Amino acid sequence: MQSIALGAKRATSRYRWVICGLLFFATVINYMDRQILGLLAPVLQHDVGWSQVQYGRIVMTFSAFYAVGLLCFGRLADWLGTRVSYAIAMFVWSIAAMLHATVGSVMGFAAVRALLGIGESGNFPAAIKATAEWFPSRERALATGIFNSGANIGAVFAPAIIPAIAVGYGWRAAFVVIGAAGLVWLVFWFAIYREPDSVTQDGDLDDRAHQTRIGTAVDTKTPAPGFGTLIKTREAWAFIIGKFLTDPVWWFYLFWLPKWLNESRGMDMQHIGMPLVCIYALTTVGSIGGGWISSAMIRRGSSVNVARKTAMLICACCVLPIAFVSQVENLWAAVAIVGLAAAAHQGWSANLFTTASDLFPRRAVGAVVGLGGMAGSLGGVLFSEVIGQVLQRTGHYWVLFAIGALAYLVALAIMHLLTPRMSAVRLKS
Protein backbone atom coordinates (compact mmCIF):
# COMPACT_ATOMS: atom_id res chain seq x y z
CA MET A 1 0.00 0.00 0.00
CA GLN A 2 2.87 2.34 0.81
CA SER A 3 4.44 1.77 -2.63
CA ILE A 4 1.10 2.48 -4.34
CA ALA A 5 0.71 5.74 -2.40
CA LEU A 6 4.28 6.70 -3.25
CA GLY A 7 3.64 6.01 -6.93
CA ALA A 8 0.51 8.13 -6.89
CA LYS A 9 2.42 10.94 -5.21
CA ARG A 10 5.14 10.86 -7.85
CA ALA A 11 2.54 10.81 -10.64
CA THR A 12 0.78 13.87 -9.29
CA SER A 13 4.15 15.58 -8.81
CA ARG A 14 4.80 15.18 -12.53
CA TYR A 15 1.22 16.20 -13.32
CA ARG A 16 1.62 19.77 -12.07
CA TRP A 17 4.58 20.22 -14.44
CA VAL A 18 2.49 18.79 -17.29
CA ILE A 19 -0.01 21.55 -16.50
CA CYS A 20 2.81 24.07 -16.60
CA GLY A 21 3.67 22.74 -20.06
CA LEU A 22 0.09 23.28 -21.25
CA LEU A 23 0.16 26.85 -19.93
CA PHE A 24 3.49 27.39 -21.67
CA PHE A 25 2.20 26.29 -25.09
CA ALA A 26 -0.98 28.35 -24.69
CA THR A 27 1.15 31.43 -24.02
CA VAL A 28 3.31 30.65 -27.08
CA ILE A 29 0.17 30.63 -29.24
CA ASN A 30 -1.17 33.74 -27.50
CA TYR A 31 1.89 35.79 -28.40
CA MET A 32 2.23 34.45 -31.92
CA ASP A 33 -1.37 35.49 -32.63
CA ARG A 34 -0.74 38.84 -30.98
CA GLN A 35 2.50 39.59 -32.82
CA ILE A 36 1.43 38.83 -36.39
CA LEU A 37 0.15 42.36 -36.93
CA GLY A 38 3.40 43.99 -35.82
CA LEU A 39 5.49 41.72 -38.05
CA LEU A 40 3.31 42.30 -41.09
CA ALA A 41 2.85 46.03 -40.38
CA PRO A 42 5.29 47.20 -43.13
CA VAL A 43 3.46 45.07 -45.75
CA LEU A 44 -0.01 45.94 -44.47
CA GLN A 45 0.86 49.63 -44.32
CA HIS A 46 1.57 49.44 -48.06
CA ASP A 47 -1.53 47.34 -48.90
CA VAL A 48 -4.04 49.00 -46.57
CA GLY A 49 -2.46 52.49 -46.56
CA TRP A 50 -2.74 53.37 -42.88
CA SER A 51 -0.78 56.21 -41.26
CA GLN A 52 1.38 56.01 -38.13
CA VAL A 53 -1.50 57.39 -36.06
CA GLN A 54 -4.02 54.96 -37.60
CA TYR A 55 -1.73 52.02 -36.87
CA GLY A 56 -1.29 53.29 -33.32
CA ARG A 57 -5.07 53.39 -32.93
CA ILE A 58 -5.46 49.85 -34.25
CA VAL A 59 -2.99 48.78 -31.57
CA MET A 60 -4.89 50.95 -29.08
CA THR A 61 -8.16 49.18 -29.97
CA PHE A 62 -6.61 45.83 -29.11
CA SER A 63 -5.32 47.26 -25.82
CA ALA A 64 -8.70 48.74 -24.88
CA PHE A 65 -10.67 45.56 -25.48
CA TYR A 66 -7.91 43.51 -23.87
CA ALA A 67 -8.42 45.66 -20.77
CA VAL A 68 -12.17 45.06 -20.73
CA GLY A 69 -11.66 41.35 -21.35
CA LEU A 70 -9.17 41.05 -18.48
CA LEU A 71 -11.70 42.44 -16.04
CA CYS A 72 -14.31 39.95 -17.25
CA PHE A 73 -12.07 36.90 -17.59
CA GLY A 74 -10.52 37.49 -14.19
CA ARG A 75 -13.94 37.01 -12.63
CA LEU A 76 -14.84 34.26 -15.08
CA ALA A 77 -11.77 32.25 -14.08
CA ASP A 78 -12.77 32.46 -10.40
CA TRP A 79 -16.38 31.60 -11.23
CA LEU A 80 -16.15 28.84 -13.87
CA GLY A 81 -12.73 27.49 -12.94
CA THR A 82 -9.56 27.27 -14.95
CA ARG A 83 -10.51 24.45 -17.33
CA VAL A 84 -13.63 26.04 -18.81
CA SER A 85 -12.55 29.69 -18.73
CA TYR A 86 -9.23 28.93 -20.46
CA ALA A 87 -10.98 26.94 -23.18
CA ILE A 88 -13.41 29.79 -23.86
CA ALA A 89 -10.56 32.29 -24.12
CA MET A 90 -8.50 30.10 -26.47
CA PHE A 91 -11.46 29.46 -28.79
CA VAL A 92 -12.39 33.15 -29.05
CA TRP A 93 -8.88 34.43 -29.73
CA SER A 94 -8.08 31.66 -32.23
CA ILE A 95 -11.17 32.46 -34.30
CA ALA A 96 -10.40 36.17 -34.06
CA ALA A 97 -6.84 35.59 -35.28
CA MET A 98 -8.10 33.69 -38.31
CA LEU A 99 -10.66 36.42 -39.08
CA HIS A 100 -7.80 38.85 -39.77
CA ALA A 101 -7.49 37.12 -43.15
CA THR A 102 -10.97 38.34 -44.13
CA VAL A 103 -10.45 42.10 -43.69
CA GLY A 104 -8.62 44.74 -45.73
CA SER A 105 -9.35 48.15 -44.18
CA VAL A 106 -8.39 50.13 -41.12
CA MET A 107 -11.85 49.67 -39.59
CA GLY A 108 -11.80 45.96 -40.41
CA PHE A 109 -8.48 45.44 -38.65
CA ALA A 110 -9.69 47.47 -35.66
CA ALA A 111 -12.76 45.22 -35.36
CA VAL A 112 -10.88 41.91 -35.45
CA ARG A 113 -8.19 43.27 -33.12
CA ALA A 114 -10.96 44.12 -30.65
CA LEU A 115 -12.23 40.53 -30.71
CA LEU A 116 -8.67 39.23 -30.42
CA GLY A 117 -8.09 41.45 -27.39
CA ILE A 118 -11.18 40.09 -25.63
CA GLY A 119 -10.15 36.48 -26.23
CA GLU A 120 -6.45 36.85 -25.43
CA SER A 121 -7.23 38.58 -22.15
CA GLY A 122 -8.23 35.21 -20.68
CA ASN A 123 -4.74 33.74 -20.91
CA PHE A 124 -2.98 35.23 -17.91
CA PRO A 125 -5.82 35.29 -15.33
CA ALA A 126 -6.49 31.59 -16.01
CA ALA A 127 -2.80 30.66 -16.12
CA ILE A 128 -1.92 32.50 -12.90
CA LYS A 129 -4.93 30.93 -11.19
CA ALA A 130 -3.85 27.46 -12.35
CA THR A 131 -0.34 28.12 -11.03
CA ALA A 132 -1.69 29.30 -7.66
CA GLU A 133 -3.82 26.16 -7.42
CA TRP A 134 -1.14 23.64 -8.37
CA PHE A 135 2.18 25.05 -7.12
CA PRO A 136 3.41 25.94 -3.61
CA SER A 137 4.82 29.43 -3.12
CA ARG A 138 8.43 28.28 -3.21
CA GLU A 139 7.89 26.98 -6.79
CA ARG A 140 5.33 29.47 -8.02
CA ALA A 141 7.61 32.17 -9.42
CA LEU A 142 9.65 29.55 -11.27
CA ALA A 143 6.51 27.93 -12.70
CA THR A 144 5.21 31.37 -13.68
CA GLY A 145 8.55 32.19 -15.28
CA ILE A 146 8.43 28.95 -17.28
CA PHE A 147 4.94 29.40 -18.69
CA ASN A 148 5.50 33.14 -19.10
CA SER A 149 8.56 32.32 -21.22
CA GLY A 150 6.04 31.04 -23.74
CA ALA A 151 5.51 34.71 -24.61
CA ASN A 152 9.16 34.88 -25.55
CA ILE A 153 9.18 31.60 -27.46
CA GLY A 154 6.12 32.79 -29.35
CA ALA A 155 7.90 36.04 -30.08
CA VAL A 156 10.91 34.03 -31.34
CA PHE A 157 8.88 31.67 -33.52
CA ALA A 158 6.74 34.47 -34.93
CA PRO A 159 9.50 36.35 -36.82
CA ALA A 160 11.02 33.03 -37.89
CA ILE A 161 7.77 31.62 -39.31
CA ILE A 162 5.32 34.40 -40.15
CA PRO A 163 7.41 36.36 -42.70
CA ALA A 164 8.17 33.10 -44.54
CA ILE A 165 4.47 32.22 -44.74
CA ALA A 166 3.60 35.77 -45.83
CA VAL A 167 6.27 35.83 -48.54
CA GLY A 168 5.35 32.37 -49.83
CA TYR A 169 1.56 32.36 -49.52
CA GLY A 170 0.47 35.93 -48.71
CA TRP A 171 -0.22 37.71 -45.45
CA ARG A 172 -3.75 36.32 -45.16
CA ALA A 173 -2.42 32.75 -44.99
CA ALA A 174 -0.18 33.72 -42.06
CA PHE A 175 -3.19 34.75 -39.98
CA VAL A 176 -5.08 31.53 -40.78
CA VAL A 177 -2.21 29.12 -40.07
CA ILE A 178 -1.15 30.67 -36.77
CA GLY A 179 -4.73 31.16 -35.60
CA ALA A 180 -5.58 27.50 -36.21
CA ALA A 181 -2.86 26.36 -33.78
CA GLY A 182 -5.07 27.36 -30.86
CA LEU A 183 -7.81 24.98 -31.94
CA VAL A 184 -5.28 22.13 -31.91
CA TRP A 185 -4.21 23.12 -28.37
CA LEU A 186 -7.83 22.88 -27.21
CA VAL A 187 -7.89 19.15 -28.01
CA PHE A 188 -4.94 18.52 -25.68
CA TRP A 189 -6.34 20.84 -23.02
CA PHE A 190 -9.62 18.96 -22.68
CA ALA A 191 -7.86 15.60 -22.83
CA ILE A 192 -5.26 16.39 -20.13
CA TYR A 193 -6.31 19.17 -17.78
CA ARG A 194 -8.25 18.47 -14.58
CA GLU A 195 -9.12 20.82 -11.75
CA PRO A 196 -7.03 20.35 -8.56
CA ASP A 197 -9.91 18.82 -6.58
CA SER A 198 -10.08 15.92 -9.05
CA VAL A 199 -6.40 14.96 -8.68
CA THR A 200 -4.45 14.45 -5.46
CA GLN A 201 -1.80 17.13 -5.36
CA ASP A 202 1.73 16.14 -4.49
CA GLY A 203 2.94 18.26 -1.61
CA ASP A 204 -0.54 19.56 -0.82
CA LEU A 205 -0.02 19.35 2.93
CA ASP A 206 3.38 20.96 2.58
CA ASP A 207 1.85 23.67 0.40
CA ARG A 208 -0.81 24.39 2.98
CA ALA A 209 1.77 24.51 5.76
CA HIS A 210 3.97 26.85 3.72
CA GLN A 211 1.08 29.15 2.87
CA THR A 212 0.07 29.20 6.53
CA ARG A 213 3.59 30.40 7.40
CA ILE A 214 3.30 33.36 4.99
CA GLY A 215 -0.33 33.96 5.93
CA THR A 216 -1.99 33.09 2.61
CA ALA A 217 -5.52 31.70 2.79
CA VAL A 218 -6.07 28.37 1.07
CA ASP A 219 -9.84 28.01 1.30
CA THR A 220 -11.01 27.64 -2.30
CA LYS A 221 -14.66 27.01 -1.40
CA THR A 222 -15.37 30.48 -0.05
CA PRO A 223 -17.02 32.68 -2.71
CA ALA A 224 -14.73 35.03 -4.60
CA PRO A 225 -14.73 38.62 -3.28
CA GLY A 226 -16.11 41.45 -5.39
CA PHE A 227 -14.02 44.07 -7.12
CA GLY A 228 -15.20 46.64 -4.59
CA THR A 229 -13.63 44.62 -1.79
CA LEU A 230 -10.36 44.12 -3.65
CA ILE A 231 -9.74 47.72 -4.65
CA LYS A 232 -9.99 48.81 -1.01
CA THR A 233 -6.72 47.00 -0.29
CA ARG A 234 -3.28 48.57 -0.71
CA GLU A 235 -1.97 45.25 -1.98
CA ALA A 236 -4.34 45.28 -4.94
CA TRP A 237 -3.27 48.81 -5.80
CA ALA A 238 0.39 47.80 -5.64
CA PHE A 239 -0.25 45.13 -8.27
CA ILE A 240 -2.46 47.44 -10.36
CA ILE A 241 0.13 50.25 -10.42
CA GLY A 242 2.95 47.83 -11.19
CA LYS A 243 1.06 46.58 -14.24
CA PHE A 244 -0.12 50.04 -15.32
CA LEU A 245 3.41 51.46 -15.46
CA THR A 246 5.29 48.51 -16.99
CA ASP A 247 2.92 46.57 -19.27
CA PRO A 248 2.85 49.40 -21.86
CA VAL A 249 6.64 49.11 -22.23
CA TRP A 250 6.35 45.44 -23.18
CA TRP A 251 3.58 46.24 -25.66
CA PHE A 252 5.84 48.89 -27.17
CA TYR A 253 8.49 46.22 -27.71
CA LEU A 254 5.95 43.78 -29.12
CA PHE A 255 4.12 46.03 -31.58
CA TRP A 256 6.71 48.65 -32.50
CA LEU A 257 10.12 46.94 -32.61
CA PRO A 258 9.56 45.62 -36.17
CA LYS A 259 8.70 49.16 -37.28
CA TRP A 260 11.73 50.55 -35.40
CA LEU A 261 14.03 48.11 -37.19
CA ASN A 262 12.39 48.97 -40.51
CA GLU A 263 12.39 52.75 -40.10
CA SER A 264 15.49 53.41 -37.99
CA ARG A 265 17.73 50.57 -39.13
CA GLY A 266 16.50 50.17 -42.73
CA MET A 267 15.62 46.46 -42.44
CA ASP A 268 13.04 44.91 -44.79
CA MET A 269 10.70 41.94 -44.29
CA GLN A 270 13.26 39.36 -45.40
CA HIS A 271 15.98 40.57 -42.97
CA ILE A 272 13.98 41.72 -39.96
CA GLY A 273 13.49 38.22 -38.55
CA MET A 274 16.95 37.45 -37.15
CA PRO A 275 17.30 40.55 -34.90
CA LEU A 276 13.83 39.89 -33.48
CA VAL A 277 14.63 36.21 -32.93
CA CYS A 278 17.75 37.22 -30.99
CA ILE A 279 15.84 39.76 -28.88
CA TYR A 280 13.07 37.38 -27.92
CA ALA A 281 15.44 34.46 -27.38
CA LEU A 282 17.04 36.57 -24.64
CA THR A 283 13.64 37.20 -23.07
CA THR A 284 13.23 33.46 -22.49
CA VAL A 285 16.34 33.52 -20.30
CA GLY A 286 15.01 36.57 -18.49
CA SER A 287 11.59 35.07 -17.78
CA ILE A 288 12.88 31.82 -16.33
CA GLY A 289 15.88 33.47 -14.67
CA GLY A 290 13.79 36.14 -12.98
CA GLY A 291 11.45 33.51 -11.56
CA TRP A 292 14.40 31.34 -10.51
CA ILE A 293 16.08 34.16 -8.56
CA SER A 294 13.20 34.71 -6.16
CA SER A 295 12.36 31.00 -5.89
CA ALA A 296 15.99 30.20 -5.04
CA MET A 297 16.10 32.97 -2.43
CA ILE A 298 12.95 31.62 -0.75
CA ARG A 299 14.38 28.08 -0.68
CA ARG A 300 17.50 29.48 1.02
CA GLY A 301 15.47 31.17 3.76
CA SER A 302 14.66 34.65 2.44
CA SER A 303 11.20 36.02 3.04
CA VAL A 304 8.78 36.29 0.13
CA ASN A 305 8.97 40.07 0.48
CA VAL A 306 12.76 40.22 0.15
CA ALA A 307 12.96 37.60 -2.59
CA ARG A 308 10.34 39.09 -4.90
CA LYS A 309 11.51 42.69 -4.52
CA THR A 310 15.19 41.84 -4.91
CA ALA A 311 14.48 39.99 -8.14
CA MET A 312 12.34 42.89 -9.40
CA LEU A 313 15.04 45.44 -8.50
CA ILE A 314 17.65 43.49 -10.46
CA CYS A 315 15.32 43.41 -13.46
CA ALA A 316 14.52 47.13 -13.16
CA CYS A 317 18.23 48.00 -13.23
CA CYS A 318 18.84 45.82 -16.29
CA VAL A 319 16.30 47.89 -18.26
CA LEU A 320 18.15 51.21 -17.76
CA PRO A 321 20.65 50.95 -20.68
CA ILE A 322 17.82 51.03 -23.23
CA ALA A 323 17.52 54.78 -22.66
CA PHE A 324 20.64 55.17 -24.82
CA VAL A 325 19.90 52.60 -27.54
CA SER A 326 19.05 55.25 -30.15
CA GLN A 327 22.62 56.57 -29.90
CA VAL A 328 24.12 53.13 -30.59
CA GLU A 329 25.13 52.85 -34.25
CA ASN A 330 26.03 49.15 -34.41
CA LEU A 331 22.91 47.07 -35.15
CA TRP A 332 23.84 44.06 -33.03
CA ALA A 333 24.92 46.15 -30.07
CA ALA A 334 21.49 47.84 -30.21
CA VAL A 335 19.81 44.43 -30.50
CA ALA A 336 21.70 43.25 -27.40
CA ILE A 337 20.56 46.28 -25.38
CA VAL A 338 16.93 45.87 -26.43
CA GLY A 339 17.15 42.14 -25.77
CA LEU A 340 18.46 42.76 -22.24
CA ALA A 341 15.62 45.19 -21.53
CA ALA A 342 12.98 42.82 -22.91
CA ALA A 343 14.47 39.93 -20.91
CA ALA A 344 14.43 42.06 -17.77
CA HIS A 345 10.77 42.90 -18.37
CA GLN A 346 9.87 39.22 -18.49
CA GLY A 347 11.81 38.49 -15.31
CA TRP A 348 10.01 41.43 -13.69
CA SER A 349 6.66 40.15 -14.98
CA ALA A 350 7.21 36.62 -13.62
CA ASN A 351 7.71 38.05 -10.13
CA LEU A 352 5.00 40.70 -10.40
CA PHE A 353 2.40 38.10 -11.40
CA THR A 354 3.47 35.90 -8.50
CA THR A 355 2.88 38.67 -5.97
CA ALA A 356 -0.85 38.38 -6.69
CA SER A 357 -0.89 34.77 -5.49
CA ASP A 358 1.51 35.60 -2.63
CA LEU A 359 -0.77 38.30 -1.25
CA PHE A 360 -4.28 37.08 -2.03
CA PRO A 361 -6.16 33.82 -1.40
CA ARG A 362 -6.73 31.58 -4.39
CA ARG A 363 -10.40 32.50 -4.63
CA ALA A 364 -9.37 36.09 -5.44
CA VAL A 365 -6.31 35.55 -7.65
CA GLY A 366 -8.14 35.61 -10.98
CA ALA A 367 -9.95 38.85 -10.15
CA VAL A 368 -6.77 40.55 -8.90
CA VAL A 369 -4.84 39.55 -12.03
CA GLY A 370 -7.77 40.80 -14.10
CA LEU A 371 -7.73 44.18 -12.37
CA GLY A 372 -3.98 44.54 -12.81
CA GLY A 373 -4.10 43.36 -16.40
CA MET A 374 -6.86 45.84 -17.17
CA ALA A 375 -4.73 48.63 -15.72
CA GLY A 376 -1.76 47.50 -17.80
CA SER A 377 -3.90 47.48 -20.92
CA LEU A 378 -5.26 50.95 -20.22
CA GLY A 379 -1.69 52.09 -19.83
CA GLY A 380 -1.01 50.47 -23.19
CA VAL A 381 -3.93 52.37 -24.73
CA LEU A 382 -2.55 55.69 -23.50
CA PHE A 383 1.02 54.87 -24.48
CA SER A 384 -0.03 53.71 -27.96
CA GLU A 385 -1.54 57.13 -28.65
CA VAL A 386 1.61 58.82 -27.31
CA ILE A 387 3.81 56.60 -29.50
CA GLY A 388 1.77 57.30 -32.63
CA GLN A 389 1.77 61.05 -32.04
CA VAL A 390 5.50 61.20 -31.20
CA LEU A 391 6.48 59.24 -34.30
CA GLN A 392 4.06 61.09 -36.55
CA ARG A 393 5.45 64.47 -35.44
CA THR A 394 9.15 63.71 -34.90
CA GLY A 395 9.96 60.28 -36.30
CA HIS A 396 12.28 59.69 -33.31
CA TYR A 397 12.12 56.74 -30.89
CA TRP A 398 14.58 57.91 -28.21
CA VAL A 399 11.91 59.55 -26.02
CA LEU A 400 9.92 56.32 -25.99
CA PHE A 401 12.93 54.22 -25.01
CA ALA A 402 13.78 56.68 -22.21
CA ILE A 403 10.26 56.36 -20.77
CA GLY A 404 10.59 52.60 -20.85
CA ALA A 405 13.93 52.71 -19.05
CA LEU A 406 12.56 54.52 -15.98
CA ALA A 407 9.14 52.89 -15.66
CA TYR A 408 10.27 49.86 -13.63
CA LEU A 409 12.16 51.69 -10.89
CA VAL A 410 9.24 54.08 -10.44
CA ALA A 411 6.79 51.17 -10.28
CA LEU A 412 8.89 49.25 -7.74
CA ALA A 413 9.24 52.32 -5.51
CA ILE A 414 5.46 52.84 -5.44
CA MET A 415 4.81 49.13 -4.85
CA HIS A 416 7.22 49.11 -1.91
CA LEU A 417 5.52 52.14 -0.36
CA LEU A 418 2.15 50.38 -0.61
CA THR A 419 3.33 46.94 0.54
CA PRO A 420 6.52 47.38 2.60
CA ARG A 421 6.22 43.90 4.16
CA MET A 422 3.99 42.07 1.64
CA SER A 423 1.69 40.70 4.33
CA ALA A 424 -1.07 38.37 3.17
CA VAL A 425 -4.46 40.03 2.71
CA ARG A 426 -7.34 38.89 4.93
CA LEU A 427 -10.55 39.28 2.97
CA LYS A 428 -14.04 39.09 4.37
CA SER A 429 -16.04 36.08 3.20
Automatic annotation (TrEMBL):
<feature type="transmembrane region" description="Helical">
    <location>
        <begin position="52"/>
        <end position="74"/>
    </location>
</feature>
<feature type="transmembrane region" description="Helical">
    <location>
        <begin position="86"/>
        <end position="112"/>
    </location>
</feature>
<feature type="domain" description="Major facilitator superfamily (MFS) profile">
    <location>
        <begin position="19"/>
        <end position="423"/>
    </location>
</feature>
<feature type="transmembrane region" description="Helical">
    <location>
        <begin position="395"/>
        <end position="418"/>
    </location>
</feature>
<feature type="transmembrane region" description="Helical">
    <location>
        <begin position="274"/>
        <end position="294"/>
    </location>
</feature>
<protein>
    <submittedName>
        <fullName>Hexuronate transporter</fullName>
    </submittedName>
</protein>
<feature type="transmembrane region" description="Helical">
    <location>
        <begin position="365"/>
        <end position="383"/>
    </location>
</feature>
<feature type="transmembrane region" description="Helical">
    <location>
        <begin position="15"/>
        <end position="32"/>
    </location>
</feature>
<dbReference type="InterPro" id="IPR050382">
    <property type="entry name" value="MFS_Na/Anion_cotransporter"/>
</dbReference>
<keyword id="KW-0812">Transmembrane</keyword>
<dbReference type="Pfam" id="PF07690">
    <property type="entry name" value="MFS_1"/>
</dbReference>
<feature type="transmembrane region" description="Helical">
    <location>
        <begin position="173"/>
        <end position="192"/>
    </location>
</feature>
<feature type="transmembrane region" description="Helical">
    <location>
        <begin position="236"/>
        <end position="254"/>
    </location>
</feature>
<feature type="transmembrane region" description="Helical">
    <location>
        <begin position="306"/>
        <end position="325"/>
    </location>
</feature>
<dbReference type="InterPro" id="IPR020846">
    <property type="entry name" value="MFS_dom"/>
</dbReference>
<keyword id="KW-1133">Transmembrane helix</keyword>
<feature type="transmembrane region" description="Helical">
    <location>
        <begin position="331"/>
        <end position="353"/>
    </location>
</feature>
<keyword id="KW-0472">Membrane</keyword>
<dbReference type="InterPro" id="IPR036259">
    <property type="entry name" value="MFS_trans_sf"/>
</dbReference>
<dbReference type="InterPro" id="IPR011701">
    <property type="entry name" value="MFS"/>
</dbReference>
